Structure prediction request, 460 residues.
Amino acid sequence: MEKTPLDRQAMCNRLAMEFQDGWVVNLGIGMPTLCSNYDFGDKQIIFHSENGVIGYGPLAAEGEEDLHLVNASSQYVTIATGAAIVHHADSFAIIRGGHLDATVLGAYEVAENGDFANYKTAGRKGGGIGGAMDLAVGAKQVFIAMEHSTREGEPRLLQRCNLPVTAVSVVTKVVTTLGLFEVTPEGFKLMEIAPSFTTDDVQAQTGATLIIPDNLVEFNA
Amino acid sequence: MKNKVYSSFDEAVAGIPDGATIMFPGFGPPGIPRNLIAALIRQGAKDLIGICNNHGALGNLMDVGRLIETERVVKWVCAFTAAPHPSRKLAFEGLYEEGKIEAELVPQGTLAERIRAGGAGIGAFYTPTGVGTEVAEGKEHREIDGRMHILEYPLKADYALIRARRADKMGNLQYRLSQRNFNPLMAQAATTTIVEVEEDILEPGQIDPDQVHTPCIFVDRMVRIPPAPEGIWDAPTRT
Prediction:
């Protein structure tokens, strides 16, 4: 049977399902922005962006961009009803001050102790920290969305990060192309597994020992 | 009333000397002082130190990337010393790797707060951001309320180049939506603040005091952006 990894939208939908009514959420650059495509139904989610936008909506239609309004990925977005604007220091006061319920970030590596690395790759002098270090220490929940393995097939879920870390002991949940994982004091716990994959498949592509609970279910998003 | 309204960008940046430290706001396209950057490039000051969230963006729009390309910058303080993806490298990265420009990589919230502190007369502050990372190396650590923090120092500048939506002749400013970003912080942290203004400059009193984002006391020079092509205006960009 053909084994199909999860697609990016399904991965982000699964994290978006964790958002509770009234949460203030910051979505990182790249894949995490897909979380805003999820249908939240009656739940009100306030999307915060580093540039001081508290409450933005879907991407602006082509030709209808407001040239004074972008999200953290520099995409032209719409403003949500009831939005507010603050300057950059106040925006990071929201982040650092513990007023964000969750952030969703991309990463190169996540360690079983909750460390993660997402700003600097091996062999490059420079790095792109952006708001990631502040989000990581400030948000109540730090969710990571990433491919399960590198292009070369190396695992990204590890005992300890090889790359310079963005923050230590902060990650609470990780969604990858193979499933949903919780970071527990004992290590990575596989909560939901991608259809058609076995726990042996997932363990073989993971650089840390997985905890497989009795109540493991198929990935559902 | 002291005249703060200048007739051209070239006149407004004329006195910026070699070696000046300059703050450049902007986050994505909104809030970038594109006309003042273009004038600064024409003006030719060199050995500059820049403080800016990024080091430019892909595309042809005027921004700090164009200034860095002139190799008149010796140091850049920013939250990105590499592009998020290696395929999107800008001139800065090559210069940095060759050692032709020095850089200080700062987490974005720490950058904003250091600038805020610079304008607010704060000597230094402790933050949990960066603890346990390369950013914390060599910095003073202190446990406060059970949590480790690192000590960060303020940033000030000789000049801030600002872009605002609206201004009055006294120099009171308003920004629109996410154009605000670093603008108010930088206007406050610089000795001399120069502003490019998108709308006709108003008479004093025409901006409601409750709606002023940057008070006039932080503003020294202003220039109204002329219509294109003389003035540089944003056009939609897709990333």
